[in-house]
Design brief:
Layout: H1 3-21, H2 26-35, E1 42-49, E2 52-60, H3 64-76, E3 92-93, H4 98-111, H5 126-130, H6 138-142, H7 153-161, H8 166-174, E4 185-187, H9 191-204, H10 208-217, E5 240-241, H11 243-254, E6 258-259, E7 262-263, H12 267-273, E8 283-286, E9 295-296, E10 301-302, E11 307-309, E12 317-321, E13 326-331, H13 340-355
Helix pairs in contact: 2-13, 4-9, 4-10, 8-9
């Protein structure tokens, strides 16, 4: 390493040390140490406030069983097992954290007037009209109010991965039964965003992955995030990302659509994404246990204290607290979700307290 790189690295460490010194994260440190073993054995938490990353902490408590399981699944997928500490550039599938990414991409088309939230999907995807689903709006796709009785999330993703084209995926969705009134039945699933993603492809003549790279990852300097190399993009759960990349996205959300002085999304689009669409007249057909008591906007859950989030099946937890003006991302990888809701709220409370300068 040359002298200039050494100097730059030292400067970053000094700046980060000063930023961290303003806050007391001892309780967050202790929480990660206590909870990480139940969250797959590894975790990393990053927090951004006042124009900089003020906290990065990684914990590795993998036990022998977790290491063996990790090696088994890696071998099954033809990959090399990785049991190292998570870092800010660790790439992992983020499951439903993808929904936030995809909703933002769709809103860029709304900003440009190429799509309206009131547009009905049959206008772009006739097969949905042929099966009585053409009146679903883009807004309803983004807020899980399509009324479609979708399979379980894991089953749905497996089915989508087996499709050969986006058109095949939409035809499969078109044949699914309805379970409730359009716009009045909330079912957290993959179908709405899959439909909206297909609409984007029809409008633009480009693949979902290309649009995501052009409009989200490129402008946000998210160098290690994509939707994989499958035949069909999975907007609701197919993203692979890193803590630093996801944090860049969250900073844009927190700054009302602006990143590095460049507007990515309109301020009104950010506001629309954060409006709770689960009104008192909406029936909840399905919502994950982790979301008990929360509202839902476009691609994100809403909390009572002006916090928005989009947790994933594998335990990663991104959130933005608009009141306290900070963004945070917890990356984990595990399936068992027992106690996950309580853990999310415990951690958020500790971070809320820590970023409140005394």
């Amino acid at each position: 390493m040359n002298l200039s790189k050494i100097f730059f690295t030292a400067l970053l460490l000094i700046c980060f040390g000063k930023a961290r010194a303003q806050y007391d994260f001892k309780k967050a440190d202790a929480w990660l140490a206590e909870n990480t073993r139940e969250m797959g054995g590894r975790s990393i938490l990053m927090i951004y406030k006042n124009g900089q990353v003020i906290y990065t902490h990684s914990v590795n408590e993998m036990n022998m069983r977790q290491k063996i399981a990790n090696r088994y699944f890696a071998k099954k997928q033809g990959k090399t097992a990785d049991v190292d500490d998570y870092t800010s550039s660790t790439r992992l599938p983020v499951a439903s954290c993808s929904k936030w990414y995809s909703a933002a991409l769709i809103m860029t088309f709304v900003d440009e007037g190429k799509l309206k939230l009131t547009d009905t999907v049959g206008k772009y995807l006739p097969v949905l009209s042929q099966h009585g689903k053409g009146n679903i709006t883009i807004s309803q796709c983004l807020s899980h109010l399509t009324g479609i009785e979708a399979p379980k999330l894991e089953e749905s993703l497996k089915e989508m991965k087996a499709e050969n084209s986006m058109d095949d995926a939409i035809e499969n969705i078109a044949k699914m039964p309805m379970e409730g009134e359009l716009g009045k039945t909330f079912h957290y699933s993959n179908v709405g965003l899959q439909i909206a993603g297909a609409v984007l492809e029809k409008i633009s003549g480009k693949s979902f992955e290309t649009l995501f790279a052009e409009r989200i990852t490129g402008p946000l300097n998210m160098k290690n995030t994509d939707f994989g190399k499958g035949k069909v993009a999975l907007p609701a759960g197919g993203a692979i990302s890193t803590p630093e990349d996801y944090l860049n996205f969250l900073v844009m959300i927190m700054n009302k659509g602006v990143f590095n002085n460049k507007r990515i999304l309109g301020e009104n689009s950010i506001a629309q994404m954060q409006v709770n669409r689960i009104t008192p007249d909406v029936k909840i057909a399905f919502a994950p246990a982790e979301a008990k008591g929360l509202g839902y906007g476009y691609g994100e859950w809403t909390m009572g204290d002006n916090t928005v989030s989009s947790p994933g099946l594998f335990g990663s937890f991104p959130w933005v607290n608009n009141n306290k003006k900070y963004a945070a991302f917890l990356m984990t990888f595990y399936i068992k979700n027992t106690g996950r809701n309580e853990r999310y709220f415990e951690l958020k409370k500790l971070v809320d307290d820590a970023v409140t300068v005394q």
